[in-house]
Amino acid sequence: MNALTTPLTLETALASWRADPVTLVLIVLVLVGYGIVWRRSPLPAYRAVLFGVVGCGVWLVASCGFVGVYSDVLFWVRALQFVLILMVAPFGLALGMPLTALRDAVGATGRARFGTVARSRIAHLLASPATSSMALLAVPWLIYLSGWYRALLVSSVVDVLTRILLVAIGFGYFYARLQLDPVPHRYPQGVTLFASLAETLGDGVLGVILWQGPLIAADFYAALGRDWGPSIRTDQTVGAGVFWILGDVVGLPFLLVVFGRLRAQERVREEQVDAQIEQTPPGSAAAEADDLVRQGLWWQTDPQIRERFR
To answer: Keywords assigned by UniProt (predicted)?
Structure first.
């Protein structure tokens, strides 16, 4: 089917598929590799479902489904593809906990080597919240506001490599943020919440630029001669909304997981504090201080502040 002459409708969206050999081979290798290590690990089945359906499934649709078919014809479809392969598919891959499955499957010697790599300086740098957030924020700006965007429209090689890069950056981001897999250093989930606010602001500014700013790759879209669908300006306006609004919407499940992990961390901290209080001998100065704290204001009952200024 020729996407240039066939209007995008619900029917054509369901029926549109294309062959993308590089992506297909890569997805198959990723699925097979994950399946091998998952069977040797104690991870529950729903982790494999998240990895295969949300991760690899969305990645496949974004590359070979109607999103991939119409990505060179409509600006907003390309924006949708970016959201799917930068935010949705990597989120599913990270929820599958592939590094945990790999660590559990390689045996004692492999786990020791795994730990050595995880403690290296390069691992600390790549897995830090600052590095992952900067990469996630910077790459859309670089793609849209440089010659990168037009290059991926005219070159299938640049297109494929860009999509692979986006999946890798997205996975690195969720790996460092969710901290479900082993990480070089564990950061409080509150850091993730604050970083998410900054990322939302950065995406919003880029969305406004795409909405109100100059046309991107206008000569390429004009040369297509598409005689159906929105105008070039309307197409870019819709694409700005897809990238900005949809990007925030698909980020909600991520925030829910972060809130859940934040609450879990608080429960563990509360249990540790309770156990410490129970082990404190009655009548001691520490026990009296704990009694005063329990009767005080909220900032007096906060475990971290109490321990710091005790």
So the answer is: Cell membrane, Membrane, Transmembrane, Transmembrane helix
